Amino acid sequence: MIRFLLNDREVCLENSAPEMTVLEYLRTKAEQRGSKEGCASGDCGACTVVVAEVVKQRLRYRTLNSCITLVGSLHGKQLLTVEHLQQHDALHPVQQAMVDQHGSQCGFCTPGFIMSLFCLYRNDHQPTRAEVERALAGNLCRCTGYRPIIDAALSLAGQGVADALAQQEAAVATRLTDMLQQPISASMQAGQRHFLVPTSSDELLAQLTAHPKAQLVAGGTDFSLTITQQLQQPDTLIYTGRVAELTQIEESEQWLKLGAALSYTDVEPLLQQHFPSFARLLERLGSLQVRNQGTLGGNIANASPIGDTPPVLLALDAILHLRSPAGRHTMPIAEFFTGYRQTKLPTSGFIEAIEIPLQPERQLYVYKISKRLDDDISAVCAAFSIELKDGVVQQARLGFGGMAATPARAFHAEQALLGQPFSEQGIEAAQQALAQDFSPIDDVRASGAYRLQVAQNLLLRAVLEQDNPTAEALEVVQYA
Ligand SMILES: Cc1cc2nc3c(=O)[nH]c(=O)nc-3n(C[C@H](O)[C@H](O)[C@H](O)COP(=O)(O)OP(=O)(O)OC[C@H]3O[C@@H](n4cnc5c(N)ncnc54)[C@H](O)[C@@H]3O)c2cc1C
Ligand code: FES
Ligand code: FES
């Protein structure tokens, strides 16, 4: 049985299709139609809801796109919808601010904006304009324009947004904790198709073995599109978000080990500490709603040639910790991708964790080239990890996305850099060698010639920025 709180009401789902999204559940089963369906692909934010869960005995709030979140993943959580904000006939302060600042015209996008603002103020009473923009970058409005909406958001900064919900937090945390302690099997099913919520790596392995056709789902930000866009009916789904080993962070002086089911939002603070340019790339991956859901493991296993984290993990010599019925083993990420969306993931296997060596002697440069700053897919993503001694390259790892059928290292260019000064002249041979490494294709995002030119230019950019590392991965917006 899948149990969660819909606002303050407990919901138990036993016989439901594994592919039911939260938005579908809200609009067709719970008869709460405040959350809207705009795109059904995670792009517009009209369906934004807030999900609270207990972390270190307190409620942690995050926005999600309900159109690409599966309802089974709500087990043990509280789903907060726009219907719940207005209490005793009084508008919630963020709703009142939108009215006062004329932040809504047709109103279709408004519930999504309201939920993003509600979550922002639940987590931070004094957001800056940059934080407001970050919170709203995944919400599109086609008629009001963003100025009044941002005014509404900023009008509350520093005031303390008091609402009745804040007083209910302790009681909600207790209810959710009790729910997770019940000895019930967290699952639901429709016929022979199940949605399963394992809590340990052993249980996950046993379920994958028992259901050979099962598909893993983590954040669902890639997988759910097969449901909402391709109308597929999956067989059994196994949700990784509650598996203890897949949601752990381990840290030593030599490495970081990040559970494969950690979301981008979960890992961002640690990456900020060790690899600031990697953390800044994450700021440009999808929107806040997508980063709250999407996971590193999903990005790697999805094996998209334009996934943003594999190029960086290639440059950092990351190691994948894999588990399957044959046991546990590790594999350098450079060996994992075998062809377009093909990997060496064993049958009934999964990624448990991603290990990233800490190599302070190397400088990491990360660049994402896309047509828009926020919520856009890369035309080219590049990550360079370079070790210099007296200005001469000792070690070089160049990871690229958007240049080939898989995320890939540029081995010829890496060789051409070794022993050369990291200077405009010193990288010329490596720039030429990139043409040996890659023959990128033309597609809607960019032409092959543009991609190659950009890859060569990014190497030059790294050279020019080597004394000013804070410039890395900043607002790189270029047009193909
Ligand atoms: C609006 C929007 C914007 C996006 N923008 C970007 C972007 O800018 N850059 C980018 O790179 N991506 C982007 N994405 C794609 C997506 O968010 C990422 O690829 C994300 O990391 C996928 O993670 P997930 O947890 O949601 O994966 P899921 O959808 O849950 O799973 C994806 C695949 O990985 C498999 N899988 C998941 N976990 C494991 C595991 N532990 N072991 C083995 N297999 C596993 C699943 O079975 C599935 O096949 C975007 C998506 C959306 C909807
Ligand atoms: S409906 Fe557009 S993001 Fe969900
Ligand atoms: S108010 Fe109409 S889309 Fe935003």
In short:
32% of the residues lie in helices and 22% in strands. It has 480 residues and is an alpha+beta fold. It is globular, with a radius of gyration of 23 Å.
Topology:
Blueprint lengths: L1 E5 L2 E5 L8 H8 L18 E8 L2 E8 L12 E3 L12 H8 L9 H14 L5 H8 L9 H10 L8 H4 L1 H13 L5 E4 L2 E4 L4 H10 L4 E3 L6 H5 L8 E3 L9 E3 L3 E5 L4 H11 L1 H7 L5 H6 L2 H7 L6 H7 L3 E6 L2 E6 L4 E3 L2 E2 L6 E8 L4 E8 L10 E10 L2 E10 L6 E2 L1 H7 L10 H10 L10 H17 L16
Parallel strand pairs: 1-5, 7-9, 8-9
Antiparallel strand pairs: 1-2, 3-4, 3-5, 6-7, 10-11, 11-16, 12-13, 12-16, 14-15, 17-18, 18-19, 19-20
Helix pairs in contact: 2-5, 3-4, 10-11, 15-16, 16-17
Bound molecules: flavin-adenine dinucleotide and FE2/S2 (inorganic) cluster (FES) (2 copies).
Descriptive account of the structure:
- It is a single chain.
- The protein folds into four domains: 2-83 and 167-239, Ubiquitin-like (UB roll) (Roll); 86-162, [2Fe-2S]-binding domain (DNA polymerase, domain 1, Orthogonal Bundle); 252-357, Uridine Diphospho-n-acetylenolpyruvylglucosamine Reductase, domain 3 (2-Layer Sandwich), CATH 3.30.465; 362-471, CO dehydrogenase flavoprotein, C-terminal domain (Enolase-like, domain 1, 2-Layer Sandwich), CATH 3.30.390.50.
- Helix 2 crosses helix 5 (146-155) and helix 3 packs across helix 4.
- 32% of the residues lie in helices and 22% in strands.
- The longest helix has 17 residues, at 448-464.
- It is built from 17 helices and 20 strands.
- Mean pLDDT is 94; it is low at 472-480.
- A five-stranded mixed beta sheet has the order 2-1-5-3-4. A five-stranded antiparallel beta sheet has the order 10-11-16-12-13, with helices on one face. The chain has a four-stranded mixed beta sheet with strand order 6-7-9-8, covered by helices on one side.
- With 480 residues, it is an alpha+beta fold.
- It has helices at 22-29, 93-100, 110-123, 129-136, 146-155, 164-167, 169-181, 201-210, 224-228, 264-274, 276-282, 288-293, 296-302, 309-315, 411-417, 428-437, 448-464, and strands at residues 2-6, 9-13, 48-55, 58-65, 78-80, 187-190, 193-196, 215-217, 237-239, 249-251, 255-259, 319-324, 327-332, 337-339, 342-343, 350-357, 362-369, 380-389, 392-401, 408-409.
- Bound molecules: flavin-adenine dinucleotide (FAD) and FE2/S2 (inorganic) cluster (FES) (2 copies).
- The site of flavin-adenine dinucleotide has 35 residues, from strand 8, helix 12, helix 13 and strand 16.
- This is 4-hydroxybenzoyl-CoA reductase subunit gamma.
- It is an enzyme of class 1 (oxidoreductase).
- GO terms for molecular function: 2 iron, 2 sulfur cluster binding; FAD binding; iron ion binding; xanthine dehydrogenase activity.
- Keywords: FAD, Flavoprotein, Iron, Metal-binding, Oxidoreductase.
- Residues 188-361 form the FAD-binding PCMH-type domain.
